[in-house]
């Protein structure tokens, strides 16, 4: 298993989601996405890495360390004011599509699993459904 940096894990997931037609990586980083409207538009998303922990207890400069990195994805879906419930359901379907696409970032050097949806809120003046997803990435962290 090739060693990866945490930024490489984040970039792989972001690139995978951005490959979906109509989806755009936000200019706002994960921590700012959705705050005061930052980076929010229909099918916009931001990927962050919120924690990394050692799982093996064995580390080597040449081989790295086996770790678990929490990868978080925030996304926004535009709601139609005259049909909030139906457009919210469409947003939930798009959330499901995003989950499946993000999981496709798994490769020989990265194992990604879906941990759950941490929150779904209607925000930005009731215009957007905002979702916050959590994944666990298991990978070898480069130490040299």
Structure description:
The protein is of the alpha/beta class. The chain is built from two helices and six strands. The chain has one domain (about 5-55, about 65-140): STM4215-like (2-Layer Sandwich). Helices cover about 25% and strands about 45% of the residues. Strands 1, 2, 3, 4, 5 and 6 form a six-stranded mixed β-sheet that branches. The longest helix is centred in the middle third of the chain and has 20 residues, at about 85-105.
Contiguous low-pLDDT stretches (5 residues minimum) are none
Q: How many individual β-strands? A: 6
Level-2 CATH architecture = 2-Layer Sandwich
Total helical segments: 2
Overall outline: elongated
CATH topology: STM4215-like
Report mean pLDDT, rounded to a whole number. Answer: 92
Rg calculated over all Cα atoms: 16 Å
Helicity level, as a percent range?
10-25%
Kindly provide the name of the CATH class: Alpha Beta
- Order of helices and strands, N to C? EHEEEHEE
Query: Main beta sheet, described?
Result: 6 strands, mixed
| Strand percentage | 35-45%
Keywords:
single chain, 144 residues, STM4215-like
In short:
The chain has 144 residues and is an alpha/beta fold. The chain contains 2 helices and 6 strands.
Task: Outline the fold blueprint.
Blueprint: E1 3-4, H1 6-18, E2 24-25, E3 44-60, E4 64-78, H2 84-103, E5 111-123, E6 128-141
Parallel strand pairs: 1-6, 2-3
Antiparallel strand pairs: 3-4, 4-6, 5-6
